[in-house]
Amino acid sequence: MKLPHLNDNSESFEKLMVEMVAEDYVLIRKERRRRLIHRVASGSLALIYIPFATFMGGGYFVIKVILFLILPLSAIWFSDYMGGLTGVAFGHGPVITVPTPGSIVRFLGWIMLLGPIWWFAIVAMIS
Predict the structure, then answer these.
(1) 90-115 average pLDDT score
(2) What is the largest CA-CA distance in the chain?
C-alpha cells in the first residue's frame, strides 16, 4: 500500500513507519504484561490476607484489613495515574506540584502491601 502525495522516497518512508509502529507495539505489549503481572501478584496476596484476618480477629478485623488494602492495591494497579496527580495536599502539608514516576508509586504500594508480612516476621523472630 502506497501513501499518497509523497515523493520518490515513499517506499522507504513506509518501511520506516512500519518499523516504528512494530517497535511501539512491542513496547506496549511489554508494558501491559508487566502491569498484569503486578496486578495478579498483588491481588493474590491481598486475597491471602483476608482468610488470615478472619482467623486473627473476626469480621471487624477483616473490614479493617480490606480498608487497609485499598491504598496499596490502588498504588500498584493505577500507579501511572496516581503518580500524575498534582495539586493535591494531604492534610495541612505541602501541595504536590510535580508528577511522581509511576514506578516509584508502584514500589511504595508494594512496600505498604508487604509491610504486615515483614511486621509478623520481625515479631516472630523477636519472640
Answers:
(1) 87
(2) 78
